[in-house]
Design a protein that fits this description.
Radius of gyration: 20 Å
Strand content: 25-35%
Structural class: alpha/beta
Largest sheet: 7 strands, mixed
CATH superfamily of the largest domain: Dihydrodipicolinate Reductase, domain 2
Helix content: 25-40%
Mean pLDDT: 97
CATH topology of the largest domain: Dihydrodipicolinate Reductase, domain 2
CATH class of the largest domain: Alpha Beta
Order of helices and strands: EHEHEHEHEHEHEHHHEEEEEEH
Length: 291
């Protein structure tokens, strides 16, 4: 089996997950380079990888130089959100399969360009929406594919979290329009993705209200969205960074003619409601995941 040669661009807060994945999946991949303009961060991640694999990757400050010099199959982009599109496009144009941390981009024009150019260059473009692979979410999606809900009526995503000013003060880009995108784009994007994935994908009408209530940041700290999808189902999003005193829940609810399911917990990782008109084999597995 071929081992894919990966490079990691961006060695900030989320990069530890990519290092852990590289260590855990050495049979199919090798992280050969890490890149960050802050040398200490890149060196730290290189040392972390070496401690887990016995091999230290190449360290770069400039990803353009890395793309020119290294034999790489795939790039993982884990920088500030506002740089995702630009860096991903450079990787795609260099012929590299590209995995981008969420959010994919901060506007639809950039996202569509990324998809279009990935097709043009014959490479795979992926986005880190790992909550799709949570065991309860997988069971929900199977129920949707099997038609257990009947006609879909509605769904909701509630992301009731806490982000205080010390969080935003960790880095100057946090809470900005240009690099963060706001609470809906940053903290709530996984929940929005799951809602859209579950209710049919294509929105027809969208209405929203946002505001900045408690945090001294450029972008919103609260937002609510109402979506009618092309299949007629209605989705609702409630997202906030203002919950006191700590994260409360991230919940996905789906309701249809013959079924209702609610997945909750702090990160859509616990089945709270599972009611269907007709039993199915998967219900035995679902019972093991119930909170």
């Amino acid at each position: 089996m071929k081992k894919y040669r990966f490079a990691l661009i961006g060695c900030g807060r989320i990069s530890k997950n990519h290092i852990a994945a590289a260590i855990a999946n050495q049979d199919i991949m090798k992280l050969v380079a890490v890149c960050d303009p802050v040398a200490e961060r890149a060196e730290k991640k290189a040392a972390d990888l070496a401690a887990g694999t016995g091999e230290k990757p190449a360290v770069y400050a400039d990803y353009h130089k890395m793309l020119d010099e290294m034999d790489i199959d795939c790039c993982a982009v884990a920088t500030e959100s506002g740089y995702h599109a630009r860096i991903a496009l450079d990787c795609i144009r260099a012929g590299k399969h590209t995995l981008v941390e969420k959010p994919m981009a901060l506007n639809t024009a950039d996202a569509e360009q990324m998809i279009r150019e990935a097709k043009q260059h014959g490479v795979t473009l992926g986005v880190c929406h790992q909550n799709r692979f949570n065991a309860p979410v997988q069971q929900l999606h199977k129920a949707l594919e099997d038609g257990r809900f009947g006609k879909l009526v509605s769904g909701s995503a509630r992301i009731l979290w806490n982000r205080t000013m010390p969080y935003y003060q960790q880095a100057p880009w946090r809470g900005t329009w240009a690099q963060d995108g706001g609470t809906l784009m940053n903290q709530c994007i996984h929940g929005i993705d799951l809602l859209q994935w579950s209710l049919g994908g294509q929105p027809d009408t969208i209405m929203a209200m946002t505001g900045n209530y408690l945090r001294d940041i450029e972008a919103e700290d609260f937002g609510a969205i109402l979506i009618r999808f092309k299949n007629g189902a209605v989705g609702m999003v409630e997202g906030t960074a203002c919950i006191y005193p700590k994260n409360l829940e991230e919940t996905l609810s789906i309701s249809g003619e013959t079924g209702t399911a609610v997945i909750g917990g702090l990160a859509v990782n616990r089945i709270e409601t599972w009611n269907f008109a007709n039993p199915a084999a998967q219900d035995t597995e679902v019972a093991k995941l119930a909170g």
